[in-house]
Specification:
about 270 residues, alpha+beta, 434 Repressor (Amino-terminal Domain), Beta-Lactamase, 6-stranded antiparallel sheet, 13 helices, about 45% helix
Length: about 270
């Protein structure tokens, strides 16, 4: 447990003194916990994990390593206890139409999406959409969306930067393996990651050639604010908004073609 705690402290670039100040305990106490000379109570371990912003899954690992029972449940999204939470996810996805929105898990595997995602995925081979379909892999794979992305260098740099940040935050080896896989894909366009986006951008745009024409989106990420379940804490909803007037018009026209009485038509649940 002490080794795990020390790893999280270093990952957050904090000294023992920094953590002691944040947790309002002595530096000696932090040192004793990290070296195994002192075993913290559940309350103390939760306080330290909170100050270090340790994800719920890894908080459970700390508890187990300290000989304590895990604090947070982990249920599948189809569990009755998470029914209302999943209903909220679907409400956000469907309510975002005619614009694309999708829900992903901790490793960027697709959980569900609304009908406006379908035009974006047209032409993506089945092996990239087979469960569990990974949206980052489908985006950057040379047989996926990569050849249809108008700004492939910029978008690739954005994805890899975001993934590196997530790895730094969580220390997840699965994300590290995903990063190495994506980084090994051939770059379709040279791009200096130190370059600043154009001053015309308010965010890094996702530009794609599609059956609806050339589309440009900016995205937002939504997470549950106070999750107490591991699975729920790792769900993120990616919502795409038109980045220009042409995209807004194209998506409005697409939305007009959708059947208003069948919100589930075209929606995909990936294993939940």
């Amino acid at each position: 447990m002490g080794e795990l705690l020390r790893d999280w402290r270093r990952r957050r670039r904090l000294t023992q003194l920094d953590l002691a100040d944040l947790a309002q305990i002595s530096t000696r106490h932090v040192s004793f916990i990290e070296t195994g000379r002192s075993l913290p109570s559940r309350a103390m371990l939760l306080r330290l994990a909170d100050r270090l912003d340790v994800p719920l899954r890894e908080r459970n690992q700390l508890m187990t390593a300290a000989g304590l029972a895990p604090m947070y449940s982990e249920r599948s999204l189809d569990h009755p206890a998470l029914h209302e939470a999943y209903a909220a996810i679907e409400l956000v996805l469907y309510g975002h139409e005619p614009h694309p929105a999708l829900a992903v898990d901790r490793h960027w595997n697709l959980i569900a999406h609304n009908r406006a995602v379908a035009p974006l995925l047209a032409g993506v081979p089945d092996f990239l959409l087979a469960r569990p379909a990974n949206v980052l892999r489908a985006s950057l794979h040379p047989e996926g969306l990569a050849t249809r992305i108008v700004n492939p260098g910029e978008w690739r740099a954005h994805i890899l930067h975001r993934l590196r940040h997530q790895i730094d935050t969580t220390g997840d080896p699965v994300l590290q393996a995903l990063y190495e896989e994506l980084a090994a894909y051939p770059a379709l366009e040279e791009y200096d990651e130190t370059e600043l986006p154009s001053s015309l951008h308010v965010a890094v745009p996702f530009r794609l050639r599609s059956e609806l024409g050339e589309l440009a989106f900016i995205s937002t990420t939504t997470v549950f604010g106070t999750p107490m379940d591991v699975t729920l804490s790792e769900v993120a909803i990616e919502s795409f908004f038109p980045a220009d007037a042409a995209t807004a018009q194209a998506m409005r026209a697409f939305g007009a073609s959708l059947a208003p009485d069948d919100p589930a038509q075209g929606r995909m649940r990936d294993g939940h």
